[in-house]
Structure formats: C-alpha cells, structure tokens
Amino acid sequence: MQLHQARARYLEHKLRALNATNMTFKSVLSVGFRVGTWTTRAQQCIRDQWGGHRHPDVAWDWDAILHRHRDPDAFAFAGWVNEHRLGFVGLAVTTSISVELKFVEGDPREDCPIGGSRALIALDLSANYAESCGKQEVWVRPVNPTLERLYISLGFEVGAPTGQPRYFRRRV
Questions:
Q1: What's the per-residue H, E or C state across the chain?
Q2: Which distant-in-sequence residues (6+ apart) come within 8 Å of 127 by Cβ?
C-alpha cells in the first residue's frame, strides 16, 4: 500500500473514532466539548494556557513525540472545552492487535471543567479508533498508581510481554 493510501485510510478511521467519541460525550458533559485531531493551536495552548503548571508525571515533550510518531497510524488528538480552552492532548498508535494510548496530558488547572473525564475520553477515543481499524484491544501504560487503579476499575487487565514493561489491556 502506498503512503498516500495509508494516510487516507487511517484518516478515515480517525474521523470515525472522533465522531463516535464526540457523540458519546456531547450528551454526558455539561460543557461545550469537542475532541479533534492535533493542530499547532494545541501546541500553542499548552504553552500559553498551561504554562509552568504542568504535572511532572505527564509534562511530555510534544514536539519530540510528534516528530517520533509520524507514521500514518499515529493519532494525535486534542480535547477542547467551549472551543477555546485546551482540556487535554494525547497520542495513540496501532500495533498488530491493538491501539496503544501512549501519551495523555490534561489541563493542569484546578478549574478544568472536564478534569474527571479526560482519561475516559482518551480511552473511549482509543477504543473507537481500535474498532475502526479492526484491532482487538486497547493498551495503556499508566504513569502513576492513581491511573493504574482507574484502568483496573474500567476493566483493564495487566499484561506483560516477555522482556517488556507491563501494560494494561482491554478488549474492544
């Protein structure tokens, strides 16, 4: 398959996943919310809106991440509150059988209207992307014990391929 064909196919999968997640959370959240693909505006809002308040566990170097993950299947996304406030950003990639949610970073300000929902939205988006791509599982590697407990409460199981760090997985 040629690169332009792969890009078009994965873009279709991403748009399908975005539409499904936006429909799900439109009726759940009490604020205006939309998740979309990554834009340079998201990168600018990380600097302008979040500033020096980012959590040390997840203050990712997004320039390096996006440079490293340029394959057509890499799915960089941003969640917006009322179209102007950046609520979270993330990146997921495909494996042979899964979509792995590799990075998520949320608005560090205490008054973020979607603070308790960001991980759920990113996981829902990853599951929708996995389903659209024909993958069987969603994988995630939590960065702290709080997230480990959340993933277990959502039905994720611990897995660890030989010689690799452990991860959490759930069938879609």
A1: CCHHHHHHHHHHHHHHHHHHHHHHHHCCCCCCEEEEECCHHHHHHHHHHHHHHCCCCCCCCHHHHHHHCCCCCCEEEEEEECCCEEEEEEEEEECCCEEEEEEEEECCCCCCCCCCCHHHHHHHHHHHHHHHHCCCEEEECCCCHHHHHHHHHCCCEEECCCCCCCEEEEEC
A2: 99, 138, 170, 172
Tell how far CA 54 is from the center of its chain: 17
Stretches in the chain below the pLDDT threshold 70? 1, 161
Closest CA to 88 of 73, 74, 103: 103
CB 100 within 8 A of CB 85: no
> What is the architecture, at CATH level 2, of domain 3-139?
3-Layer(aba) Sandwich (3.40)
In tens, the pLDDT along 54-94 reads 877 778 899 999 999 999 999 999 999 999 999 999 999 99
CA-to-CA separations, 106 to 85, 101, 170, in angstroms, rounded: 11, 14, 22
Q: Are strands 75-81 and 157-159 parallel, antiparallel or unpaired?
A: unpaired
